Amino acid sequence: MARKRGKYSSKQKVQMVMEALTYAQGVQAYCRVKGVKDTQIYQWKNKIIENAENAFTDSSKKDQSQIIRMSNELNEKNDVIADLAKENLILKKKYGD
Q1: I want to staple 20 with a disulfide (CB 3.0 to 4.6 A). Which of 10, 24, 30, 92 is the partner?
Q2: pLDDT for 55-89, tens place per residue?
Q3: What is the mean pLDDT of residues 24-38?
Q4: What distance in Å separates the CA atoms of residue 17 and residue 14, rounded to the nearest whole number?
Q5: How far apart are alpha carbons 66 and 58 in whole angstroms?
Q6: What is the separation of C-alpha 97 from the centre of its chain, rounded to a whole number of angstroms?
C-alpha cells in the first residue's frame, strides 16, 4: 500500500536520501524496496544541497534578528491600531454612535 503524501518527516527524508545514495544496488533499487519514486529522492537530495549552507550558520544570531524585526513590525502595527482607535473615538464623539 502506498504511503499518503506528506507522511515523511524531515529527518526521515534526509535518512532516506542518504540511504538511497549509498545503497549498494543503486538509487532505483532502493526506491523499489521502500516504495518511493526515484524522482522524489532526487528532489529531496537537491533540497538538502540547496539548504546545506544553513547547517553552518549561527541560528541564534539569525533567530535573534528575526525576533527583533518581528517585534518592530508588531510595534508599528500597534501604533497604527492605536491611531485608528483614537480617530474612531473622535468621530464617534463628533457624529454620535
Answers
A1: 30
A2: 777 777 778 888 899 999 999 999 999 999 999 99
A3: 94
A4: 5
A5: 13
A6: 46
